[in-house]
Amino acid sequence: MDKHQQTILVTGANGQLGSELRVLSTSYTNYKFLFVTKDELAIDDIDKVKNYFTNNKIDHCINCAAYTAVDKAEAETENAFRINGDAVGNLASVCKLHNATFIHISTDYVFDGSATEPIKENQTVNPIGVYGASKLKGEDLAIKNNPDTIIIRTSWVYSSFGNNFVKTMLRLMKDKESINVVNDQQGCPTYAADLAAAILNIVEQISNSKLHAPGIYNYSNSGKINWYEFAVTIKELTGSKCIVNPIPTSQYPTPAKRPQYSVLDTSKIQRIFNISISGWKESLEKCLSILLNK
């Protein structure tokens, strides 16, 4: 183990995952954490990124920065590809140059949603929208520029921070007598706090045992539900009187198509990094207890 205190750089610090990593960082006192927002370090500015790495001895970089507006991406293609694609490739190159671990967060949107059983990491990718295509380009460039990259694909992320389905449901259930939620898209939610813990667990294993296991990994909580079932569970756990109606995707058109099936097979990350994964409902209860006590 290196004598110096290792430094972990977290980009996209104000997002859901970045915020959860910040909460957890206080328990990892043997590391120095640098949290940067896009104003502090725009990952699409390669010169700024190079200077930042030169001026700060970075041992690990967790890239949580992304263009995540799925529907807006259909119109802002260039923007999405610059941040989710080119910038990721550049970040991977700089990490390689500085011998820093690069952990990049990707998405189930790299798949087309036509699967019928949990999706493994090596299944054929086929994004159906600009967001997914831009994230796939980031994956490809990262691996090409830095074969030691670790990519973690995740799905349906929510947290007590930022904007997400859980917080939207809480707001709508308070304001409305009834709401409509699609019931024909299947997947599994991911509590960002659980994903953050898994990532820091991986960083520790890499820095302590010099475990070398680059590649693509899936991470979500366990189970399989649709958005309607997710909403109904939120209603039940919070005691809301709001009526939740199931509707097909066809009744809720959006500029970007959503994958119909996004259940990820997480056995690889559990096996390689010995990570245990909580059930989606158990994690939802944890998040709701934080949100309801705020």
Topology:
Layout: E1 6-11, H1 16-25, E2 31-36, H2 46-55, E3 60-63, H3 77-97, E4 101-107, H4 130-145, E5 150-154, E6 157-158, H5 165-175, E7 178-182, E8 186-187, E9 190-191, H6 192-209, E10 215-219, E11 225-226, H7 227-238, E12 243-247, H8 267-273, H9 280-292
Parallel strand pairs: 1-2, 1-3, 3-4, 4-5, 5-10, 6-9, 7-12
Antiparallel strand pairs: 8-11
Helix pairs in contact: 1-6, 2-3, 3-4, 5-7, 7-9
Helix content: 40-55%
Strand content: 15-25%
Q: What low-confidence regions span 5 or more consecutive residues with pLDDT below 50?
A: none
CATH architecture of the domain at 6-163 and 190-222 and 264-277: 3-Layer(aba) Sandwich
Q: Would you state the CATH class of the domain at 6-163 and 190-222 and 264-277?
A: Alpha Beta
User: What is the chain-wise order of helices and strands?
Assistant: EHEHEHEHEEHEEEHEEHEHH
Query: What distance lies between the first and last C-alpha atoms, to the nearest angstrom?
Result: 40 Å
Overall residue-averaged pLDDT value: 96
Largest sheet: 6 strands, parallel
Number of strands: 12
Please identify the structural class as seen in this structure.
Answer: alpha/beta
Strand order of the largest sheet: 2-1-3-4-5-10
Summed up, the helix count is: 9
**CATH fold group of the domain at 6-163 and 190-222 and 264-277:** Rossmann fold
The CATH homologous superfamily of the domain at 6-163 and 190-222 and 264-277 is named NAD(P)-binding Rossmann-like Domain
